Amino acid sequence: MLPLPLLIHWLAPAHQEPRLAVYVPFMPVLARLAGGASAAGTIITRRRRLQFVQVVLVWCAVVIATARPFWLAEPVTRELPMRDLLVALDLSGSMETRDFTDADGEVAERLTAAKQVLDQFLARRDGDRVGLVFFGSAAFLQAPFTDDLDVVRELLDEAQVRMLGPRTVLGDAIGVAIPLFERSEVDERVLIALTDGNDTGSLVPPARAAEIARDHGIRIFTIAMGDPQAAGEQALDEATLQVVAATTGGAYYHADDLSELEAIYAELDRLTPRQVERQSYRPEHELFHWPLGFAIGLSLLYFGMVELRSLLRRERPTLRSEEQA
Questions:
Q1: C-alpha span between 249 and 171 (Å, rounded)
Q2: Contacts of 318 (CB under 8 A, 6+ apart)
Q3: What is the CA radius of gyration of the chain?
Q4: What's the rounded Cα separation, in Å, for the pair 167 and 10?
Q5: CA of residue 237 relative to chain centroid, distance
Q6: Per-residue pLDDT tens for 12-55?
Q7: Residue 211: pLDDT above 90?
Q8: Where are the alpha helices (DSSP H) in the chain?
Q9: What average pLDDT does range 261-289 have in this prediction?
Q10: CA distances from 235 to 92, 167, 232 (A)
């Protein structure tokens, strides 16, 4: 597009403006005094050099802006999650039992201890998508898979004992997790189920739910809290938790205190290492506004100078008249 004005100048006829005029025999003299040449009753004005330079620069800048130049920045590496990790936390009434010792040596509730260690565990899951399921007398999806771990940790901190009832429905919690994993496109699918009781009311038995989870490629790591010697609804059904873990290719752990619970999550970090796919791209920064701004600024400057020069010329005769007077 750069030579387009030259082609128009060579091929197109000159611009003409017909006007009423009076024929005078000294027309060549007037044309010479006006700064142009006359031919067949016409006056051709000459373009100033400054105007020619301004037109050329503006045209070049507009053509460059139309070409949409851009600057390729340094490559940016993006980490894509390659694992969907779902945490199922028991909120039944037995989770308020104070039989865990925290890092300060003070006795803490089971739920408090579980939340402390889970929070530390999630803080190390950068690169994974994490979801959160709470279960008691019913199972509820608290947070779908997301890479915003801060939100998951905040929701975990807000969990309270008995907020979903006093009973334990581990099988239903696994059932809630399965359709969530079905919408996942990653290969590594892990469910961590933390409970301190036995299943007391699931519509689907935990063993059967584990078989369905296995068919969907989900590995379940079960973590038991509490006393295996307890009786009634407080009893810890270790056999079922072991079957669930073994069926899906996961593992079963038992935590007696906070230190053992921390060791379990350290082991999970080792068994399910982070797998991150890196995707690199180079951001493009548009630059068309620079030549476009240059063209506009140069045009404004030129026409401003022309207007100022015309104003000064109009004021000079007035000053001379005042001086003569």
A1: 17
A2: none
A3: 41
A4: 92
A5: 44
A6: 877 677 777 677 777 677 667 766 555 555 555 666 788 888 88
A7: yes
A8: 4-11, 27-33, 49-66, 110-123, 149-157, 170-182, 206-215, 238-248, 258-271, 289-324
A9: 78
A10: 13, 12, 5
Q: 110-123 and 149-157 are packed helices; what angle lies between their axes, rounded to 10 degrees?
A: 170
Q: HSE-up of 49 (CA within 13 Å, CB side)?
A: 0
68 burial class (0-12, 13-18, 19+ CB within 10 angstroms)?
exposed
Judge whether 91 and 167 are in contact, CB under 8 Å.
Answer: no
Number of other CB atoms surrounding residue 255 within 10 Å: 23
The C-alpha atoms of residue 112 and residue 96 are separated, in whole angstroms, by 8
Question: First vs last Cα of the chain: how many Å apart?
Answer: 57
Give the separation between CA 192 and CA 183, rounded to whole angstroms: 18
Neighbour-count burial for 74-89, b at 16+ CB within 10 Å, e otherwise: eeeeeeebebbbbbbb
Burial 287-314 (b: 16+ CB within 10 A, else e): eeeebeebbeebeeebeeeeeeeeeeee
Place of tokens 């935990």: 206
Give pLDDT, residue 133.
94
212 against 113, higher pLDDT: 212
**Cβ-based neighbour number of residue 216 at 10 Å:** 14
